[in-house]
Amino acid sequence: MKRIIIFGIIWIAFCWTAKASLIDYTLSGTGSGSLGAVPFSDTAFTITSTADTANITESLGVFQVPDITATVFVSGLGSATFTIPTDNFDTIDFTPGAGISSPNQHRDILDISSSAFASYDLSSSLSPVTGTPSINSGTGFQTTAGNFLLSSISSVTFRADVVPEPSTFALLGVVSVGWVLWRQKHKTMPPNIRTACKFSAVPSTARNSQ
To answer: Strands 126-130 and 146-162, how do they pair?
Structure first.
């Protein structure tokens, strides 16, 4: 019985954590452009987006996933949220690369090329990758602070981080507490009850022979 309980706990935890999960994609670099009406030059910026790995699709060697939300932070200017649909993509054929784009505008906001993306499918965490950047210079992408626009860029780094689900931690916590209480109850059971339990577990034929 004990083994069945342990196996059940492990199986539930595995099935729960095997579900699709949220993932954060981060593109950070240094460049020039503007956020709203405020220009910036050779300034650090970060574009962060969140997506659900269950929505990843693949076609002709290109993985894509729509973002749930996407924001941009420009040092000295602050943060803004993109008000247009955005998605993240990864190309494994031809020139491997990844980036974030505006599907409605059919324009990429920011790309990065690197051989590291040849075996990546957007579904897992990825350590920071630095590569060759590419932008649509002069194209504005709408945010809560006005258009975000890049005119030049000198460096860019991409990384991905799977977001731990609070529900997963809650489930494992409940399982852990339940296991501790079960063990505590077993240890504190009066000796006479434990003896009775052991005796009741003996087959009737064996008891009759005693």
So the answer is: antiparallel
Amino acid at residue number 42: D
3-state secondary structure of 208: helix
207 Ramachandran zone, left/alpha/beta (phi>0; psi -120 to 50): alpha
- Return left, alpha or beta for 76; rule: phi > 0 is left, psi -120 to 50 is alpha, else beta: left
Do 30 and 155 contact (CB within 8 A), yes or no?
Answer: yes
Question: How far is 137 from 150, CA to CA, in rounded Å?
Answer: 6
**pLDDT tens, residue order, the chain (210 aa):** 455 445 444 444 444 444 569 999 999 999 999 999 999 999 999 999 999 999 999 999 999 999 999 999 999 999 999 999 999 999 998 899 999 999 999 999 999 999 999 999 999 999 999 999 999 999 999 999 999 999 999 999 999 999 986 655 445 554 554 555 546 655 555 555 555 544 444 454 444 444
Q: Which two tokens stand for residue 51?
A: 């997506």
**Cβ atoms of residues 53 and 123 within 8 Å:** yes
CB-based contact 90:63 (threshold 8 Å): yes
